Fold this sequence. Notes:
By secondary structure, the chain is of the alpha/beta class. It has 2 domains: about 15-110 and about 215-310, Rossmann fold (3-Layer(aba) Sandwich), CATH 3.40.50.150; about 130-210, Putative methyltransferase TM0872, insert domain (DNA polymerase, domain 1, Orthogonal Bundle), CATH 1.10.150.170. It is about 40% helix and about 10% strand. Helix 11 (about 215-230) packs parallel to helix 12 (about 245-255). The mean pLDDT is about 95. S-adenosylmethionine binds near residues 55 and 82.
Amino acid sequence: MANxxxxxxxxxxxxxxxxxxxxxxxxxxxxxxxxxxxxRNILNHANCQVIGLDRDPxxxxxxxxxxxxxxxxxxxxxxxxGDMQTLLSENNVQKPDGIVLDIGISSMQIDQAERGFSxxxxxxxxxxxxxxxxxxxxVVNQFSEADLARIFYILGDEKRSxxxxxxxxxQRAEKPFETTLELANLIENTIKKGKxxxxxxxxxxxxxxxxxxxxxxxxxxxxxxxxxxxxxxGRLVVVSFHSLEDRIVKNFLKLRTGNVSAPSRYVMVVDTQxxxxxxxxxRKVITATSEELDVNIRSRSAKLRAAIRTDADVFAEYFxxxxxxxxxx
Length: 329
Ligand SMILES: C[S@@+](CC[C@H](N)C(=O)[O-])C[C@H]1O[C@@H](n2cnc3c(N)ncnc32)[C@H](O)[C@@H]1O
């Protein structure tokens, strides 16, 4: 849904409200505040309280604007959603009735050249959402050819990962990478465009972004945190844009709703839960309607999964065997 006050289009907004179903008096955590589109719509939908969370320091400005209109009903906490339990407890936030995650980056992050997310705009090769830790340039300038190829192949599904990694090593021996366009141009000059409509640098940029921000590990931590935090009957809604992320959410909910059958009689599925900790709201994944796709093409890869927390105790953290990645020092 387009928001007059926000430069970000909030994907699957109607579906988020329907599945999250905020009620008067509820406490909702919007764990990916961004431009505040979801938070604003939730606050307008019911007389509830919203806690907005984001790791991007720039989200604070949009949060300050929102706070003006909603007073005590809205509070912003800066930090990573993987640390949600600690962040909420440090801020004396009670158990929420709903948690929503809209994983990935916002349009503002892509549009601001200085953040270094876009291969179409020249800027420093950065890509750090929280402006901390190793940047994409550090990774590209310091990692081995094999490590770079692994990142591009696994996190970007880039089949030509080795030729690209090799070309990166040759170019950085002349001059280290500093900007987004230096990398995008190198990729363009290294591999053939082929028939695909997407830009040849798309997959490498996506892989570097996911790697630098440890996005998959953060998601697993957030799912575990949500399971611990939600009240019985509380709702978890997750919108993701990438198949690796959607698979994590799908498998988590499959296991936690008890919908797992052993793949063969020789393989045992070990589930420490006696009773399911979640019940699915939607059996099938929810995607954008054709009306939404007409106004926002970015919605085409959005997938929404939602579930309701039961009163079952949780005995062990959900463990997802994430692909083994080089160390992000
Ligand atoms: C797609 S945007 C959310 C847009 C928001 N739903 C709206 O309607 O404006 C995703 C946001 O999540 C934030 N984010 C991504 N990973 C995060 C993490 N691990 N912890 C906290 N925030 C994160 C990004 O900084 C970005 O602002």
